[in-house]
Protein: ATP synthase CF0 subunit I
Amino acid sequence: MKSVIDSFVSLGHWPSAGSFGFNTDILATNPINLSVVLGVLIYFGKGVLNDLLDNRKQRILSTIRNSEELCKGAIEQLERARARLCKVEMEADEYRMNGYSEIEREKVNLINATSDSLERLENYKNETLHFEQQRAINQVRQRVFQQALQGALGTLNSCLNSELHFRTIRANIGILGAMQEITD
Structure:
């Protein structure tokens, strides 16, 4: 610092003869040159620097505004998505509950239909058994009747002569004729 002061003090000791010369003292001339350059830069570069800083400030502010708008948009989308999710979850619960009740209803209907089918099959089986029993009984009756008729015919043929045979036939024809007259 002392050298700077010395350089200003030494200005007063210059000869006033009007000669022009170079100061070769580097330490004395550098601060002066730097202060002049800085002064010129500050004076003329101040506007450019302010414009650059203002532009940068405006870009930063617009970026912040855009980010805030994007954030608001994202929050709105998130809220819409949450509302849709709640709606879908409620619909899913409703479908689930309806599905369970539908399954229970179908299960009851299936059990009832199966029970009805089993009852019909049981009735059909019983009817078939009854029919088969009646058919077997009828076959046995027919066979017994045929055997009894053959036995009776054999007995009649051996016991009857032709005169008795004709009288029996005439009596039966008379009975049939009387029955026919009653029905007419």
User: Anything to note?
Assistant: Helices lie at 2-11, 26-159, 162-183. Residues 7-17 have pLDDT under 50 and may be disordered. The chain has one domain: 33-175. DSSP finds three helices and no strands in the chain.
